[in-house]
Amino acid sequence: MIRVLLVHDVRIIRCALAALVGKEPDMVIEATPWREAVRMTRALTADVCVADADVAERSPLGELTGLSGSPGGKRGAHRLLVLVSQDCPGALRRALDAGAQGFVGKDALPEQLVTGIRRVAKGERFVDNALAGTLLQASEVPLSRRELMVLSAAAEGASVPEIARGLGLSTGTVRNYMSAITRKTGARNRVDAIRISQGAGWL
Question: What is the mean pLDDT of residues 12-31?
Answer without folding.
Answer: 94
